[in-house]
């Protein structure tokens, strides 16, 4: 990697999705851009490790092909998104119940209606609500509240506690569902509009595709910024003079650079990967359907013997994630966990969820991710200002919404504000 330049038009701090999206827009506008990142590769939180023929994303992540920002900057055909099943399997008292939109999974219709997870009227009401969001052209800018309060009042205790809380806890990475209803609406709308999946070569294919649209040698890795001004960025490898700066790090790193900046707390997750000792066809009907535990939560009480918020057979949707026809399982729990005892508890929970012995499953890797998602507490402004001061701009999903689409949008918005200011 070449040395950092002494001077450029714009310094973008952070080579994650927000920083790459900002750099892409600025490059198109003719600005000379230098992207610096303290890490050893691009992608920020969206990284994939290739280990012994296995593709291991750092934390369970999916990409929704309906994301509007992605449609404008990514080549989805080249990414070759492998979609997961548009539904969930809820495990309750040793039985599994399939829940999905009957229009997308017609064979699941009876199971969806009769599953003991709430009244049929509540299920139909929830389906109608989600569909209404999908066809609505207005954004969620009205009254905001906590997601859990809204769900319980609107759809009842049983559906909320046995399906919606277990599922959404894995989406928002927090069990209390204190997350903004505005973000809930955005999330549900995207689920109805498109079926999430993973790129054939792993989630890091997304930032790599963005980076490929930038001039060669515009990204400098292993460079740590220590101070920022509108006309200079100080790094551990020297100063870079510039006309403006885009801070596109995660929230924690942004606050280190700008101590006065108000940022949300981060929600953490730990993801375990296992190789099963059976064919993928023997698990979840050969599909990549998210499995959740309907009895993990009892109100706000989290059962510690049921650590996982979700698990899925990755290779049922994306065989490219494991060579040699192996069966790769991804499973996630809230918080940061390192111990072998935690893995043993996970293995026990997996046996209950899949209803097979997991004693011979091979533990491949554990990924604790302390800053997995910024908390979107209610009330939440889904489009916070990207202008920090004259010549200094902010980008990151914490400025928008906690998603890949939010990261891409925040990067574009920061770049466009810079261009409007002609800096």
From TrEMBL:
SUPFAM superfamilies attached to this UniProt entry: FAD/NAD(P)-binding domain
Keyword annotations from UniProtKB, A to Z: Oxidoreductase
Record-level Gene Ontology MF annotations: oxidoreductase activity
InterPro entries with a match to the protein in the record: Amino_oxidase (IPR002937), FAD/NAD-bd_sf (IPR036188), Flavin_amine_oxidase (IPR001613)
Pfam families listed in its UniProt record: Amino_oxidase
Positions of the Amine oxidase domain: 17-419
Gene3D superfamilies: FAD/NAD(P)-binding domain (3.50.50.60)
Signal sequence residues: none
Cofactor(s) of this protein: FAD
PANTHER family noted in UniProt: AMINE OXIDASE
Name of this protein: Unannotated protein
Organism: freshwater metagenome
């Amino acid at each position: 990697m070449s040395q950092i330049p002494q001077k450029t038009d714009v310094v973008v701090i952070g080579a994650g999705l927000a920083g790459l999206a900002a750099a892409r827009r600025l490059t198109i506008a003719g600005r000379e851009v230098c992207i610096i990142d303290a890490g050893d590769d691009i992608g920020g939180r969206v990284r994939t490790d290739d280990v012994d023929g296995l593709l291991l994303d750092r934390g369970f992540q999916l990409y929704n092909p309906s994301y509007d920002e992605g449609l404008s900057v990514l080549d989805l055909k080249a990414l070759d998104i492998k979609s997961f099943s548009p539904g969930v399997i809820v495990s309750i008292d040793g039985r599994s119940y399939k829940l999905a939109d009957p229009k997308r999974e017609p064979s699941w219709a009876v199971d969806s209606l009769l599953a003991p997870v709430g009244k049929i009227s509540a299920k139909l009401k929830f389906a109608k609500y989600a569909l209404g969001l999908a066809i609505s052209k207005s954004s969620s800018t009205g009254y905001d509240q906590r997601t859990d309060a809204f769900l319980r009042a609107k759809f009842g205790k049983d559906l909320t506690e046995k399906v919606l809380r277990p599922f959404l806890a894995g989406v928002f990475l927090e069990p209390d569902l204190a997350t903004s209803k505005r973000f809930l609406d955005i999330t549900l709308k995207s689920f109805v509009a498109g079926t999430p999946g993973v790129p054939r070569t792993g989630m890091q294919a997304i930032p790599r595709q963005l980076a490929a649209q930038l001039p060669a040698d515009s990204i400098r890795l292993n460079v740590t910024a220590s101070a920022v001004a509108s006309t200079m960025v100080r790094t551990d490898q020297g100063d870079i003079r510039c006309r403006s700066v885009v801070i596109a790090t995660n929230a924690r790193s942004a606050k280190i650079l700008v101590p006065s900046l108000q940022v949300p707390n981060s929600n953490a997750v730990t993801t375990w990967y296992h190789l099963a000792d059976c064919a993928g066809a023997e698990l979840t009907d050969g599909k990549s359907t998210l499995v959740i535990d309907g009895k993990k939560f009892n109100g706000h009480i989290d059962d510690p013997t049921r650590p996982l918020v979700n698990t899925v057979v990755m290779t049922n949707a994306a065989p490219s994630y494991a060579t040699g026809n192996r069966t790769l399982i991804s499973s996630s729990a809230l918080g940061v966990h390192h111990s072998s005892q935690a893995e043993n508890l996970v293995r026990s929970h997996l046996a209950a969820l899949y209803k097979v012995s997991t004693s011979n499953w091979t533990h491949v890797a554990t990924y604790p991710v302390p800053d997995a998602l910024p908390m979107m507490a209610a009330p939440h402004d889904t489009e916070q200002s990207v202008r920090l001061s004259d010549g200094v701009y902010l980008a990151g999903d914490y400025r928008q919404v906690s998603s890949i689409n939010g990261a891409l949008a925040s990067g574009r918005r920061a770049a466009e504000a810079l261009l409007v200011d002609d800096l």
